[in-house]
Design a protein that fits this description.
Elements (H helix, E strand, L loop, with lengths): L15 H7 L3 H23 L2 H47 L5
Amino acid sequence: MSTPAERTGPDSRDLPGEEASRHPWLLPLVRYVLPGIVVLAGIVVMALGSETDLEGGGGIVSAGLAIYFINWLFRTGAAGDRERDDEERAREYFDLHGRWPD
């Protein structure tokens, strides 16, 4: 693999795995902390505001839950991709050896 100094041109962008290894705190922050802060902010708005602020706070809470569930859907889809890759490797093993891998 080439070093960042050796990469030039349009393909010189960092790979996704490299980005995750440089910022290990970023993924949990987006998955859990960000939705939690948004939901908490919505609850605070509902608790401290007037009757009309209840609707706004509910909208903020809904936005926080939406952030969390979009992250969950993405993780679920990625898990399905891993399972398909495992299945494909097992089929290739079966084609070569005539038996299903353990």
